[in-house]
Structures are given as structure tokens and as C-alpha cells.
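Researcher: Quick test of sequence recovery. C-alpha cells follow.
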């Protein structure tokens, strides 16, 4: 995640900011999906139905993977910042 000469706490802070931004983006995806479903309820449409079945959920899963991998990187930086006594 970071260079050996970089303070791991700086890398952790940056990663936490990125996770926070990603969560805001994910909240927007959920809101868009809810809007799409409400529109489908009031005006059914074959094209939007296909989109509702696939695309938004896939984008959300990709974002979730990013968040998970970033947390793993943070764990590594925390171990580097606070090594266990041997």
C-alpha cells in the first residue's frame, strides 16, 4: 500500500478517506437503484427491467470488493505501524 519510507499512518488516513468516499458513492448507487425500481413500478419498461436485473447490483459488488481490499491493506499498514514485540 505504501512505500517503505512513507509513514504508515499517512497511508492509513488516505485509505480511510478513500473508503469513506466509496461508501458515499455506494449510497448513491442504492438511491439510484431505488429510484429505478420506483419508476419500474409506475411505468414498466423492458429495457429498464433488464438494467434493474443486472447493472446496478454489479457496480455495487465491485465497490464492495474495493472496500474489502482497502481494509486488508489498512490491516497490513497497521501491522507495519505497530509491530508485535518478539
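Model:
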Amino acid at each position: 500500500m505504501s512505500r517503505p519510507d512513507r509513514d504508515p499512518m499517512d497511508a492509513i488516513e488516505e485509505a480511510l478517506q478513500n473508503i469513506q468516499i466509496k461508501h458515499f458513492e455506494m449510497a448513491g448507487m442504492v438511491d439510484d437503484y431505488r429510484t429505478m425500481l420506483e419508476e419500474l413500478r409506475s411505468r414498466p419498461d423492458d429495457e429498464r427491467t433488464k438494467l434493474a436485473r443486472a447493472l446496478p447490483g454489479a457496480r455495487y459488488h465491485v465497490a464492495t470488493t474495493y472496500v474489502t481490499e482497502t481494509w486488508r491493506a489498512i490491516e497490513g499498514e497497521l501491522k507495519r505501524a505497530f509491530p508485535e514485540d518478539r
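Residues 8-79 form one domain.
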